[in-house]
Design goal:
The protein has helices at about 15, 40-50, 60-70, 85-95, 110-115, 135-145, and strands at about 20, 30-35, 55-60, 75-80, 105, 125-130. Helix content is about 35%, strand content about 15%. By secondary structure, the protein is of the alpha/beta class. It has a six-stranded mixed sheet with strand order 1-3-2-4-5-6, with helices on both faces. Helix 2 links the parallel strand 2 (about 30-35) and strand 3.
């Protein structure tokens, strides 16, 4: 079962930038999607939820970084060009803090110049938009530990 947590109170400036939690705690892989484009973020989140992953999302790199400090994730999927903190800046913080979370950069504007200057900032996988849902899911499966992947059909109740 998947829940979208919403609140009726008016959020503070810090809370308004916080993440919306979109998955329940479970033994399934936890993925953080970071993108300021609400359509792209929503599409990625829905594909992942439909595929049986626990997902949280963030609207910019700063909020993504905050989530990474507060909670455990098995994978980060990030855009690059975002307000407050770019995807490259978030990857840099991950590397300097020695977090070993795999990162997919899914963006329409690949920062090839920055990667050439600082190769240690390259994500584990870079995907230039547009790409198919199948390509997206295959990339995720290749980066996640094989023993933790949950097939969506395994989430359905058994029929006698």
């Amino acid at each position: 079962m998947v829940h979208l947590i919403q609140t009726d109170k008016t959020p503070s400036s810090k809370e308004s930038a916080r993440l919306s939690t979109i998955g329940q705690k479970s033994s399934r892989n936890r993925i953080l999607v970071v993108d300021d484009d609400s359509d792209a973020r929503h599409r990625h989140v829905m594909i992942l939820l439909d595929s049986g992953y626990d997902v949280e999302d963030a609207t910019n790199g700063a909020d993504g970084w905050e989530a990474l400090q507060d909670r455990h994730f098995d994978l980060v999927i990030t855009d690059n060009r975002m307000p407050k903190m770019t995807g490259v800046e978030m990857i840099e913080k991950l590397r300097f803090s020695r977090m070993t979370i795999p990162v997919i950069m899914a963006t329409g504007h690949m920062p090839t110049f920055e990667f050439a200057r600082k190769p240690w900032l390259r994500p584990d996988l870079a995907m230039v938009i547009p790409f198919s849902d199948d390509e997206f899911l295959a990339a995720i499966r290749n980066l996640l530990p094989k023993n933790y992947y949950v097939r969506p059909e395994s989430l359905l109740p058994n029929n006698p």
